[in-house]
Design goal:
Elements: H1 4-55, H2 60-120, H3 127-179
Helix pairs in contact: 1-2, 2-3
Length: 180
Amino acid sequence: MLTVEQVLASNKANIDTLLGLTSKAFEGVEKIVELNLSASKAALADSSENTKSMLSVKDAQELMALQSSLLQPLAEKTAAYSRHLFEIASGSTAELSKTFEGQAAEAQKSFMGLVDTATQNAPAGSESAVAMMKTAVTAATTALETVQKAVKQATEVAETNFKAATASAVDSVKSTAKKR
């Protein structure tokens, strides 16, 4: 049976976890806002320079060359922004996942303690029901661990694919710009 102290300690731990998660979420939002401000400032500066360059163009051929030369840095900056945004999201997700895994492990440990206490106090003749309950808990634990591993693997595959796609897009723009 749970005591009042155990319930209070559990609630306090849950509140501490919630506050920690909220703090981590705000840190991620702050990083995204900083990234967007930085990208906006850079885009404004680039736009100003590009406008000045276009106003100094004397013929159509020079305009085409200028447009071609502006395309590659834009693609590289877009790819860098996407990579940085992905890193922020991945970092925040990893921290949140680590916290959730810790909480899940603690909850599982507490639940197993409760199951053990219940089985010790079970009436005589209920051994088969207790064994069945322990088997179900073990199966649920194994399933949860399998899902966590699958999510980690899927995240790693998505990150690898994102990096490959970004590199491919930048290389494609570079080769297109060189052909012009």
